[in-house]
Amino acid sequence: MFLSKSDFKVARSCPTKLFYKKNGYPSRLDDSPYLRFLADGGYMVERMAKLIFDGGVEVGFWDQPQKAFEESRRLVEQGDVILFEPTIIFGKLLARIDIVVREGNTLKLIEVKSSSVTSDSSGELNPFRGKKGGIESAWRPYLEDVTFQAHVLGQVFPGFEIRPFLAVIDKAKIATSDLTFDRFKLRQKASSDGRFSAPDVEYLGDLEQLKTNHLLAILDVSAEVEELRPEVVNSAEAYATLIREDGVVRPAPELGQHCKKCEYRTAFDPTKSNGFRECWGKLGSPNPHLLDLYRIDLAGGKNVNLVAELVAEGKAALEDVPTDRLVGEAAVRQRRQLVCHQSGQEWIDPALPALLRSHTAPLYFIDFEASRLAIPYHKGMHPYELAAFQWSCHTLVSVNSTMSHSEWLNDSDAFPNFAFARSLREKIGDHGTVYIWSPYEVSTLREIRRQMDDYGEKDDELKAWLDRMIEPGNPRIVDLCQIAKDHFIHPDMMGSFSIKDVLPAVWKNNPALRKSPDFMKYDQIDIAGNVLSPYDVLPKLPVGEMDEVVKEGTGAMRTYQEMMYGLSVGDLELRGNLKKLLLQYCELDTAAMIVIWRHWIEGGC
């Protein structure tokens, strides 16, 4: 058993997690659509990086580390060579490196990441340092990763100069026709043991054009690695002592507010191991937990870890939080949450119904779906530039009217943003109230407006409309998420103001809304008689050999990509099913807004 670079990264966030990772404890990251989405882009970026280097040798033997190491060392010792995925082992430390290039007595170590930088016209770039010269915290985990690998490589080949590089996406570059998303095809490999295996990525474009116009910045990080080396080496050696022949030692956890987002804080299941509960012991049982307090990180004030103080007193339930210790901007919401928890009742500001009734009709409830990819969908786009591919809008012509629904989904292989904006303008025009949930929709329109100038789009009326929509303080636009934060608390929300948490809290506790003709199709219960969230009753449709459903934004992005550029391109039935999945999900997002709005305007249950 070795300490890999991914093990090192986990241990740096919390040494106790190393025990859980090595022993295969259930993790919230196991089925994370967002991480799978990022991984897909990462594999494409890695493939692009490898194609830049002619004659590279793929080492392989992923499931046989010692054999992979022996082959990697043999190839390096033979002479100049380019290696892809070589495995290097020193003691208990293992590094599988993206690219190693031997040139004489120099070993170039190239770590490929789908993270991004933006170069300037001078070509000089060091995004890793702040204004005062220190290493930026956002880049530190990536640089520590490279430092770990450089240390292992240098120990195995002490006679060589090790030059570390970080290859990242440069957002200043522009995609050519040979560097668009459709030029890279992911093909999932079968795994005999059922475990995840990295997909094959096939490149379908012009290789010479890719080499000339690739989207990467390959940056020398030697200075940063040398600065981080002492700390990284000491930490790696300490973590390696936890790995023994008879298993992994579980270090004593440091409990605190950082545990709130721990990936091993999974739903309780008596048949499965639970890392969070093992760390917290009997203090992990309360539900709701003190970590479920809204903005627990702010509780107690600046430089105060109230969670650690309560844990030291043997307290971990939400009701154990002392209200007199709640200070600062989040204190009002925190106190209201505690009151609601104690009473078991929601709180609706008495002024909220009148506030909502003051908004000018017609009332438009809108939601957007968009994507930002390292390798863009379309020629002429920058990496990670926004592509808005779908909107949904539910409309009420008056407070008491029946809702109507409109939608738009791009299904042509062309840059969609201007058609997206024109169709939305045609729907919502310049009159009435536009409800959103979070500032995302405004930021999307703001970027589309900028793109009109960058792309030379000639449509003065659309530009003027976008300018009016994105004007700061535009009274037409009302953020229902902010209204929730200011005027509404329900104990079932567990301190969250995500629409995915607010909707179920309202839905479960308002049977009259569930029976409304507008929403009856979402009204279902499980076999135990529990009211299901509307997101859990969206119908599945056949996609390949599986029945699939989209019920969150990352799933929408992946489904759109499959519809536009996957195997469905030549399969009309499959393409139709993917389109239905996208439309029903986005429709629910705006229907959810009306459910919550109606609950509020009627004064609650």
Features:
605 residues, alpha/beta, Lambda Exonuclease, Chain A, Nucleotidyltransferase, domain 5, 4 domains, five-stranded mixed β-sheet, 19 helices, 22 strands, globular
Mean pLDDT across every amino acid position? 93
Task: Kindly state the percentage of residues in helix.
Answer: 25-40%
Distance between the termini: 57 Å
Q: Measured on Cα atoms, how large is the radius of gyration?
A: 27 Å
| Outline type | globular
Question: Can you offer a commentary on this structure?
Answer:
With 605 residues, the chain is an alpha/beta fold. It folds into four domains: 3-248, Lambda Exonuclease, Chain A (Alpha-Beta Complex), CATH 3.90.320; 257-343, no CATH class; 359-480, Nucleotidyltransferase, domain 5, CATH 3.30.420; 499-601, no CATH class. It has 19 helices and 22 strands. The strands form seven sheets. Strands 2-3-6-7-8-11 form a six-stranded mixed β-sheet. A five-stranded mixed β-sheet has the order 17-16-15-18-19, with helices on both faces. The radius of gyration is 27 Å and the shape is globular. The mean pLDDT is 93.
Please give a quick description of this structure.
The protein is of the alpha/beta class and 605 residues long.
How would you summarize the topology of this molecule?
Elements: E1 3-4, H1 5-13, H2 15-22, H3 33-52, E2 57-58, H4 65-78, E3 81-84, E4 87-90, E5 93-96, E6 99-103, E7 106-117, H5 140-156, E8 161-170, E9 184-187, E10 200-203, H6 207-213, E11 216-220, H7 222-240, E12 243-244, E13 247-248, H8 275-280, H9 306-312, H10 331-343, E14 347-348, H11 352-357, E15 363-372, E16 386-396, E17 404-409, H12 417-428, E18 433-436, H13 440-454, H14 460-470, E19 477-479, H15 480-487, E20 488-489, H16 499-508, H17 511-514, E21 541-543, E22 546-548, H18 553-565, H19 572-601
Parallel strand pairs: 1-5, 2-3, 7-8, 15-18, 18-19
Antiparallel strand pairs: 3-6, 4-5, 6-7, 8-11, 9-10, 12-13, 14-20, 15-16, 16-17, 21-22
